[in-house]
Amino acid sequence: MKVAVLGYGTVGKGVYEMVRSAPGLECGPVLVLPHECTEPFMVTDIEDIVSDGSVDAVVEAMGGVEPAASFAEKVIRSGKHFVTSNKAMVAEKGIELADLAREKGKAFLFSAACGGGVPILHNLSVAVKSDRITGIRGILNGTTNYILDAMQSEGMGFDEALARAKALGYAEADPSADLSGMDSFRKILLACAVAYGRQPSSAKDVEGIYEFTAKDAQVINGRGGAVRLIASGGLNENGSVYAFVEPVIFFDGMEKSVRKNFNCVSYTGERAGLITLFGQGAGRYPTASAVLRDLTGIMDGTLEMMPHGCVRTEERNLPQRRYLVRCDSDMASRFSATEEWHREADTVWIITDLVPAEEMHDKVRSIRKEGRNVFFASVE
Ligand code: HSE
Fold first, then answer.
1. Where in the sequence is the domain holding 92, given as residue range(s)?
2. 292, 57 in Cβ contact below 8 A?
3. Per-residue pLDDT tens for 134-145?
4. At what angle do helices 120-127 and 284-299 cross, to 10 degrees?
């Protein structure tokens, strides 16, 4: 199978190298920007790939929604298989592209878009054939885990930890999607799409780590806890599907021991019970290995991971959680607190009653509109 690659950055280069030495695969052209066109195998016009009848499959590793989505459509319409590592593009256009690929009898696969080398989407797409998945939950962003770990284990400041995550190549060029929780959210909604055929798309319940401070780390560590950024998705008893992202405080368990930039994600099958996957969620070869998994899957006849009839939903029926809230003491009465963890000058760290997660996200959003700072993390 001859494989063309769109993009020659961290992932694209890794894919090209791995395809070159993979049995049954052969390298086709690589699409780059004009100023990057330095090798004979490189081209700068997508039409050179679309019109090349010898190319069977195209791997997209450019990132961003456009022009990646338009290129995907052209490639699939031209009768080629399409594999991507681009979570933003699949989150926004994946359902339509998967329908088009199905119509054309070609593959649309995106293992590498969630979990890097960790085969969460692959496993879910296999598991749903024989089990009912009730929940999916875990650390799906290496950048934020690296920052949280450095702040809590080494006492490093937020800015220094972010600078290191950038230097190590974990963070996106623009790390705002990592830090705001949107990168984790896009990944969990892809997992929900694969597991449930429903893609929760309301990004209202997405909290990142911007508000987390060294003082929060000190208060939480003093109680024996550690904060991790957790993406959760699941199936309610009434059949609705939810997805949300928020910092979570762990006192023990696997997530607490996940250090540096690693990912750790679990899913629960009604029959299989809890399954946990741990590994490298980013980086050249882990991500390229997921792309190769899809390419070899195509050779074995696997053409889809997005279920037929998958739809976007705006459901927000989230579970109830207890939260640690750090806020100015005059705002504490807005939360129904059961316990005070710490007080310093005009700031309090309180623990709330059980509240539906969407209620907490809405409340904090409205407080921030008043220009006030709040940090919150659910308590495991
Ligand atoms: N910026 C992402 C992360 C890269 O830190 O997990 C992998 O999707």
1. 2-109
2. no
3. 999 999 999 999
4. 30
Count of beta carbons in the 10 Å neighbourhood of residue 156: 18
The ligand 1 atom nearest the CA atom of 170: 5
Mark which of 248, 263, 280 sits at the end of a domain.
Answer: 280
- Identify whether the C-beta of residue 305 lies closer than 8 Å to the C-beta of residue 122: yes
Nearest residue by C-alpha to atom 7 in ligand 1: 282
For the CA of 287, the closest atom of ligand 1 is: 7
| Domains identified in the chain, total number | 3
- Backbone φ, ψ for residue 291 (5° rounding): -65, -45
Nearest-10 crossing angle of helices 142-153, 214-222? 70
Q: What would the mean pLDDT of 346-359 be, rounded to a whole number? A: 97
pTM: 0.97
Q: Which residues pair with 311 in a beta bridge?
A: 198
Residues 104 and 131 in one domain: no
Task: Provide the CATH number for the domain around residue 356.
Answer: 3.30.70
Average pLDDT over residues 262-270: 98
As beta bridge partners, residue 323 has 378
Which CATH number is 30's domain given?
3.40.50.720
- 350 near 324, Cβ under 8 Å? yes
Choose which residue among 183, 245, 280 to substitute to test ligand 1 binding: the one with the highest number of ligand atoms within 8 A of its C-beta: 183
Instruction: Check if the beta carbon of residue 111 is closer than 8 Å to that of residue 121.
Output: yes
Q: Are residues 64 and 208 in the same domain?
A: no
Kindly list the protein residues whose Cβ atom lies closer than 6 A to any atom of ligand 1: 116, 141-143, 170-172, 178, 183, 281-282
Note the pLDDT tens digit of each residue in 189-209. Answer: 999 999 999 999 889 999 999
Active site residues: 187
**Per-chain mean pLDDT for the chain:** 97
